[in-house]
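Bit of a strange request maybe. I'm writing a small parser for structure token strings and I need a real example to test against, not something I typed by hand. Could someone generate the tokens for this chain?
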Amino acid sequence: MTNTVTLERKGHVLLIGLNRPEQKNLFNEEMIFDLAAALGELERDPELRCGLLFAHGKHFTLGLDLGNIAKSIVKDGERQYPEGSLDPWGKKEPFRTKPLICAVHGLCLTLGIELALNSDIRLAATGTRFLQLEVKRGIYPFGGATSRFVHEAGWGNAMRYLLTGDEFSSEEAHRIGIVQEIVDPDQLLARAMELAENVAQQSPLGTQATIKMARIAVMEGEKNSLPELWPAAIDLFKTEDAKEGVAAFLERRDPSFKGC
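Reply from user aminoacidic:
Good idea to test on real output. This should exercise your parser:
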């Protein structure tokens, strides 16, 4: 992996940092593949229970480096990720199973919004500016916003910005459900880490099952997801983590989960 993405382990949390600050974290092909590899590492390592995605520099990202990528998209189509990597925008299997928290700041444009929408919990610094401006470039959002933005914000709220490319604030992003918390810039990473550590303290099997069941409900509908709930729950009750959870409840102590 190159230095376009930084990795740092803190306990059971993997901090993943976008690292092209001089280019305002514009995504070139190298950065896309480095991020895919980082998410693959989060997925594979049993000691890692939660990821935290953030960015170095003044801005989260200005989006896709069209000058670097546009011609290759037309010529070669969508790139295939190497084995062991995960699509950062969750458009193709295998899907991420471990929780991911995303902290954005500065400018968060186009596929940066879509990257955040593919995470599980999203925080924004006060003063963050969002733009989904693909229609101003003669294209459209192809990183998932046409489904996830609509699902999170509702049709009207999503189309208000998808069809105009207008800028919106962190307060507006919070109002329409794109972010869950607004944090002072100097506290953003600390607050995101606090949430990540909280998630990492929970049962890894429980958090992964929660994401799996929620994804089935969103992608396939309740008709397909509801029949899966009891069989998956029964399997979880057989695990050591579930036994530890019950024992901790009865003994009035904090559980110590092992992920098995």
